[in-house]
Every structure is written in C-alpha cells, then in structure tokens.
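Page 37, top half.
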Amino acid sequence: MADTELMDLARAVVSELYPDARAGWLGGSVVRGDAGPTSDLDITVLLDGPPAPLRKSLVYAGWPVELFVHTEESLRFFADKDQARRQPTMMRLVGESVVLVDLDGLGERLQREYLAEVKAGPKPLSADELDLLRYTITNLLDDLTDASGDARLAVASVLWQDAARLLLTGAGHWSGTGKGLLREVVAYDVARGTDYASSLLDEVRASDDRLVETVDRVLAPYGGRLFGGFELAAQL
C-alpha cells in the first residue's frame, strides 16, 4: 500500500491538472510495495471527455509521474486490448489501486470490476495461438543449438520470454513484458511451487544445455516442439 505522503501527492496531481475528474486511481509499484529509487507514480484519471484519452509524463514535486487519462469508454477499449494480448496493464492499474478521487461511486465500482477481471485470468489460448507459440519456440531452440557467445545470449534472451509466455498463458495465467513478465512468472511460481523465474534466467546466462531442457519441459504438456505440419493461414 502506498504511504500517505505519496497518496496525498498523487491526489494533488489529479486536483491540479484535472479538477473535473470523475475518478482517479494510484496504481503500479508504489501500491504493490516494490517501488525503487526511479519508480514513478502511475495515476489513472477518468474524465467525461477531452482531453481524454491521452498518456502524459511529467515531474511533480520531484516525483516522476505517468498519467493515463481516459473516459469510461476509452478505459474499456484499452482493457479489452489488454485482454486480447493477455497482459492486464490497464486492468491492474485500476483494479489493484488506491482510489484517489471518486465523485459518484464510479471509481470504486470500476476498481472492483477490473480487479475481478484480473482475478478471473485471461481467455484460453486458441489452437492457432498455441501452435504459433510452439513453432516459434521450436525455431528458437534450433537457433540456440547453432549459436555461441553473444549470438547465443541474444537468442536465449528471446527464448526465455516466449517460453515464459507459453508457461503462463497455457496455464490460464496473465503474461507481461520486461520486468512485468518476470513478476508474472514469480507469481506463477509462488502459486504452484515451481522455480521457473530463477531457473530460466540462470540458464539464459549459462552456456550449457539446461535452458533447452527446461524449455522442452514447458513445451511437453502441449505436444512438444512443432515444425513439420505447422500451418497458419494469413489474416489480411
């Protein structure tokens, strides 16, 4: 939970820049409790119309601030995009938040609704999505076999991310990008008693075959590697 000083600062940002805001939420690392020295304040603001929707970065009282300014309709639009890519950025910013401003109860209602969507998890992978992930990972495994030095590190860094996405989305868990992907794998490990978050990254840095073995274990429940017979129709 964010401390009182940061909450007051976030409220001041909303009050000064968007005095007509219907609702405002403080989310991100300062609310999760894992903020670092360079962390910013992630503030989502709900307006009835323009200038929403927009995204804006600024420094306020010495703090970097990321503003996500939306109408109710644009908030839903971007949450639906997050649903489609199975990365609940917008839903977490609102659902896992501290309510800063709430003129008519909409702030708390939307917070509850988006939190429920986060807890429900993403839709299952389609057969085409699953096959594409298996095929992509298979090609990366083949590339890794032939690579060494910097080339191996470059391939391995992409491979762990795609393997992590299959691990997560195949199990009905949200995915992410960058450190957000790592957070999701850590959460997966906590829920299931596994250690993929540490093992995959340790194996990326290593020069042996452990990464290949781990990725093959991730693939196994879905039929293993896929190359021969792969087919995916183009969508124009």
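Page 37, bottom half:
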Amino acid sequence: MQRRDFIVSALMAGTTLGTGRAVMAAADGNFEVTRSEAEWREMLSEREFYVMREEGTEPAGSSPLDKVYEPGIYHCRGCDQKLYSSEHKYDSGTGWPSFWKALPDAIGTKEDRTLLFMVRTECHCDRCGSHLGHIFDDGPDPTGKRHCLNGVSLVFKPAEA
C-alpha cells in the first residue's frame, strides 16, 4: 500500500470513531423501512452495523465486491432495494466499489462534515436510510461523479442468464 493510500484509508476509517452517533434513520427522517437499533444489530454483523447505521467506513480493499464486474444489480443490504447497476460500475483504483451513477430514486444525499476541513456528500439508501458511502466529483463521463461505496452495505445479485 502506498503512503497516500494508507493516509486516506486511515482518515476514512476514523471518520466516525468515538462519535456515538445515533442510528441515521432515526436522526434524519422517515424511511419506508424502519427497524429498532436492536433489530438492526440482530440482522447485521458488527462491521455492517458500524458502516450502515453509524456512518462508518470499511477499510479500503476489504470488499470482494470492489472487483466484481459481471452483469447484475447491487442491492441495499438493509432492505434489498435496487441501488446500482453493474453497467455504471468502474474501477476507480480506490479500493471501494465505485459507480458513476445510481439507479433512479434509489439514494439520498446529505452534507458530511465529519472530517476536519473537508465537506463531502454522503449517500444513503432512500428506502431504509442505511449509509452507503460518499459521492465525489472526480468520476468518469458522462456524470463526472464517483459514488465510492462500502461493499458491506451492498448485496450483488447477478443478472439472470
């Protein structure tokens, strides 16, 4: 791992450590799918809960979904909503699954100021509020966007033959 990649990964992994933030869905609004914290904890692993419900970040390069490029749809692990098509996926070289566009009406966004001196756009599932990752302005055409996602927030379902 290069020094720059290590520093970026360390910053990303530490974005919510020690904040004790409440479950995002409860704090940010009403979602079609809601669960109590206990229900979320029962259905998700510790890492999944940290990322999806406490707005954490998985380590770069830790998701097998980063290198999956077969045809299919990426769904929300929290509610099974269709979020991203494999047609919009690309290798960003960041170590996280990256897409240049989401499916229509699949995600919501909000401003994220958890990193000192940095404003990012956070994205979440529009149906259950689960944290997915962040959107940056350094992606490919035609949108110029990079939806940099946590693989633990996603379930890949291959296209039927």
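Margin note: Confidence is low (pLDDT under 50) at residues 3-27.
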